[in-house]
Sequence to fold (221 residues):
Amino acid sequence: MKWQTYFFKEVDSTNTRAATYDVGSVIIAENQTAGRGRNGRHWQSFAGNLFLSAVLPALQNETPLLSFVAGVSLAEALPDVPVRLKWPNDVLLHNAKIAGILLERVDDKVIAGFGVNITQAPDMDTLYKTTSLNQKYTREEVATNLLTALSRNLDLLIQEGFMPIRQKWLDYAVGIGAEIEVRLPHETMRGIFETLTPQGAISLKTQTETRLISAGDIFLL
Fold:
């Protein structure tokens, strides 16, 4: 994938702006006035942090798996930082959220939005406490590394399928083999996070059954 990057001083949301661009486009803004995360949650945008959205092709049978491509790519973009990936697409440092990823389908493309706490962490109501890189890397370094990794992993998914991406994700994953709590819209359950299935779901072993969960929020116990 070759990228065409567009820089803005301020946008409402890089994902919203990116939706009007073609596949291969990248939107980077210094500030967002209406950043958002999963399930419509507000994303507080501090100056100095990275706000980037990349326009990806909506692959026919693998669109949901782009979430894992995005997570692995961001982890690989932060060398020497012991980041971990929390299903489905949170990036943690020392059990605190250092970045968020939001994927949105728009016609025949997928907008992959990244919010990375470079200089400071939002003080907001999130499912996990937040932290930042404390300027270990600059926005420019993270953006360059991220786009390089994203291109590489997108090509890997297209050429070899999900299994290599799945293995990379498992190498960064937090909670595998441990008891977790999964919160669904109408149900909360606990069990052992056995693995990530080839379809990108959690295999959760409860006291009575093994459940495959494709959407929800998980918490480490």
Summary: The chain is about 20% helix and 35% strand.
